[in-house]
Structures are given as structure tokens and as C-alpha cells.
TrEMBL record:
This is Phosphotransferase. One of its GO terms (biological process) is intracellular glucose homeostasis. SUPFAM superfamilies: Actin-like ATPase domain. Transmembrane segments: none annotated.
Amino acid sequence: MSPVPKPHESVEPLVASLPTPADLPDYARKTLEAIAPGFKLTDDRLREITHSFLHDFELGLSKYGEPMAMIPTYVTGVPNGKETGTFLALDLGGTNLRVCEVKLLGNHKFELRQQKYKVSDTLKTGEAVALFNYMADSVDAFLTERASIDPNQQNEDLLLGFTFSFPVEQTALARGELLTWTKGFSAKNAVGHDVGQLLQDAFDRRHMHVKCVAIVNDTVGTLMTRAYTGGDCLLGSIFGTGTNGAYVEDISRIPKLAGHPAVANGGKMVINCEWGAFNNTAGLRTVLPSTPFDNKLDRESINVRKQAFEKFISGMYQGEILRNILLTLVDHQPPILFKGESSATLNKHYGLDTAVMSDVENAQTLADVRTAVSAGLGLPLESVSDLDAWIVRWAAEMVATRAAKLSGAAVAAILVQTRHARLQGYGDPAEPIKTPGVMHVGVDGSMVEFYPHFEERLRSALRALVGEEAEKATKIGMAKDGSGVGAALCALQAMKQLTA
Ligand code: BGC
């Protein structure tokens, strides 16, 4: 194990938690010190971002067509844990497609059978009809091979909740048009189409006795699942390949729904924020601190100037931001990293997986960091010096800390929007703050589940934004299997509406 180098005072502003190597050459130190401020988020900047978030919430709740879509889901309440029934769930949203059979037991518990199916790049980027056919085929295969229910033994159609984790402008629980693809999907002839109908058509072409009764965003599924298993939930959020949040809003505060027959009786509705699109209008009101590394990522992406917030914080993009930084350091004259040597992983667009950053940050000693860097970047161990290892760790920590703090701003915005907390430094809100009690936030996704220090960093931002009392009252809990269970709970709600 190589010894951890001694601290070096002059590089204090750099963030890496391992002491700075004393032998960091001057030109390297200066370059790192020039990069670091671009990633720094002061408390004031975070407050400004959260304030801007709240502004975009208002806009999205008032009008259709806003970048932060604030989508009414037609889900009018959260479960209490007593719900029962068996439903199918289909979940498309990231790397895999999942088909599940969910049995809600009515005592806050559930049983789940599931099967994952790979979604190839060809399916993600080909014709939508092929993607939806593949989904129907997967449900068919699941019913034959895994499910306990036999569709041929049933008199009625099996009810399915469709967790489709992309921005869908819903017009009813089971109806909604895809606004845009995100997370690397670009299948043709889907945007502008009703995705519930596309799926149903695929089932019908196969004469399957399955009825899609609800389209569910994964954040909504997370919110519903957390409420079902834990009894209460204020926000369901995903910090994974993509990012987003869903919360319960008073219908009276959703002006764009005024006059809609579905809300004649007032009450509450779950809103899918689509917060990944926050600050899409960059250039007009840029509040996110874009660095040249972010700009490069955006320019080279398949959705330029879209999902602006998501590109700062989600798992799909963080590895790519890091790759952009590392390549700049490799190409620097004189080289700052790996003596100017690159690797196939470093040279490939999206070649650096965010999981590598996670390994680098998880390593406890500089020797372990070296091993993680060498394995993750595909470089021989002897090409990675202690100094290289330290610099990669420094950069990973910087990118991931910014991501987690921005995630904290999104959570804070919901606490303020729902009048559970006050944004520090912005005066008293018009309405009184509810006595906090415990505020439950259900979360899911690879960043929050696996990335080291993610919650701790998110919380440090939350404290700066809403104060220590509200931060402490916020209980963040994983809602495992949220997509499947949430889809089942929405299918149940749809069934009740159908039979009412
Ligand atoms: C999608 C959201 C989704 C989030 C997390 C985003 O890219 O637009 O609908 O909830 O990813 O999966």
C-alpha cells in the first residue's frame, strides 16, 4: 500500500478528501485551481437555484408547454397500505425493461415476481412500433414462464400499470402523449403519440388479454410505494440514470387544470415535475453553473439544450463530465495526467461509466484509488501514478459533490413548494409553514443507492437551503421496487375509477 501523501497548504480550495500530494507541480496546481471554482456551489448560488426552481414550478403549474412540465398525473391520492389485489406492471425507463406481477397484501407489504429483459440500442433508437412490440412480447414471455396468474384461466383482462419513465403529458390515468425522449432513447414515431395506446395496440396485435389501465412515471411509482409501505410520503424522487420528482399538490394550485371535469371536486393530485428539464431555457435565465465540460457534453448529446438539470446530476452523464475533464488534463502541455497517455475508455464518447467514479470515491487509500483508476479507465497500473490517482479522485469528488448538492436544491424546492419549509434568505412565505413533523422522501436510483456520500452531500445543501430543523425532519428512504409496486397501485386506482 502506498503511503498517503502529506497535505499541501496552498491547494486548500481543492475538494478531494485525500490529502493533496506535496509533489503536485505548480502548473498542474494552477490548472486544477482554475477548474475548481466552476464546480463550486456557494450557499447563495444554491438558494438562487432553488428560488428559480420554485419560479419554474409556478410556470409549469399555470401553463402547458413549459420546459418544467409539472404534469398532472390524474392520481388523486396516495395509498395507505391497506390496498389489495394482483396486477401486472411493465417498467421501461433506463437500462432494462422489467415485467412484474405484484400482489398487494394490504398490510403495507407486497409480493413480487419479476423478470428483466435487455433493451438494445437498436430498439432504443429504431422504430417505436418495434420497441412496443418487444415490450408486448416480453409481457407474453413473462406470463408463460414466470407469472402465477394464467391469463387463459381468467374471464377478464389482466390489468397492467405501465411505468414509462419519460415526460408524458397525461390527459387521463391511462392516456398521455410522449413530449420528448430522454436518457439516450430516440425511437421514431413515438413523440406526440399516446404511449398507453401504442402499448395496447401491441397487446391487441398479439390477441393478449392484457389491458393497460395506467401510465405511471417512476417518480410517481416511488411516491406511491413509499406511502404504501411506510404510511406517508411527501416526495418520490429518482436519482439514477435520469432524475425527477413527484409530489402531491392541491388542485386549487394547478391553474392549468381549471375547468377540467376530472378535478371538479377539488382535492389533491400527484404532479410529475419533470425537473430534469429545469433551466432548459439557459441563455435566458442561466442559473446552473455550466463549465466548458458541461457545454461539451450538451453539444455532443442527442438532446441539445434539453434536460439541462439532468445533465448536471444524473448517472447517465456524470462519467462523461469526468471524462471531459480528464481528457483536458491528459492533453494539457505539459501533460497533467498519465504522462499524456489516453485509453480506449477515455477516448470513447460515454466510455467512462459513472460506476467507475463510484469505485474511485469508495477507495480508502491512494493505492486503492490507483487500482480503481487503472481498472476503470483501462490503463496499466504502472501508467497510473499516485499523483494521477489523486487528481482523478479530486475530479470525481468535485463532479459528484456538485451533482448531490443540486439534487438537494430540488428536494428543498419541493419542501418549500408544499409549505413544509422556508427557503432561507428569501423572507417569510405568504402562507404559514406546516409544523414539519417527519417529512418522508421516497427515493430510488443508482446514484442514491450506490454512490458514496450522495445523501450526506445532498443533506449539506438541504441544510443551507431550508435550515437544520427541516433538514433533520426530512427522512430519506429507499423505495425499492417502486416502479413495479407503484404501477400496481395506480392500476388499482384505475380499476376503482372504472368500476365507480
Ligand atoms: C425522465 C423522467 C424520469 C427520470 C428518472 C428523466 O429522464 O424525463 O420522466 O422520471 O428520468 O427516471
